[in-house]
Predict the structure.
Amino acid sequence: MITAKNLYKRFGDQVVLDNISIDIAAGEVVAIIGPSGSGKSTLLRCLNLLEKPESGIIRIDDVTLDTEHYTTREEYALRSQTAMVFQNYSLFKNKTALENITEGLLVVKKLPRRQAVEMGMSLLEQVGLADQAHQYPVTLSGGQQQRVSIARALAVNPKAILFDEPTSALDPERVHEVLQVIQTLARRKTTMVIVTHEMQFAKEVADRVIFMADGHIIEQGPAEHIINFSDNPQTRRFLRQLINIETPSEFSI
């Protein structure tokens, strides 16, 4: 579903992605972990060109783009293959939860309003927020806002969903409700790439974990093996720093 070859990205003199290559299968859930400054969020943002790599090839489903030479049409085609969920929700403050979801359906997909509203309500039901459909973001908790953001991402029927630290801005008691939704999507074989620091969640939900440091992929493999049994000293050192983070071990609804 997703292939990136030799992605190279720098900010000024600092190289943040040094010829990174990844392959992600349809229906696979991949968690990207690593210390701050490792390049994990930049890699995610490069996949839909929120950050523009200096070089490299990106393919998502049947759309391929050379990051050194591409047209506006090719950029739009690549971006339309994915949806992104940000750590700070990025909801329209002046629109209700339902309107945040239907906006893209009306403006981009050109759906009739009745159909867009029906789809929006169905998605809010999926994330447990049907009763909050007509509330504005300011009246919702952080966890509820993030669930609206996930519903909005699902609305455009993407080939893959990209999550950039989806729980990092949440109070600890709100993390669980967002992780529940993501695990439900994983059970449905939704292709997802998740930058996260929730190691227990990554172990239970992700099919594969990629550990990054200093702009390189240090190692990757089955989630439980990497998190519990890695023999790479950099990975083990990073995981030891997180050993005392308490994350619920049960995410089922």
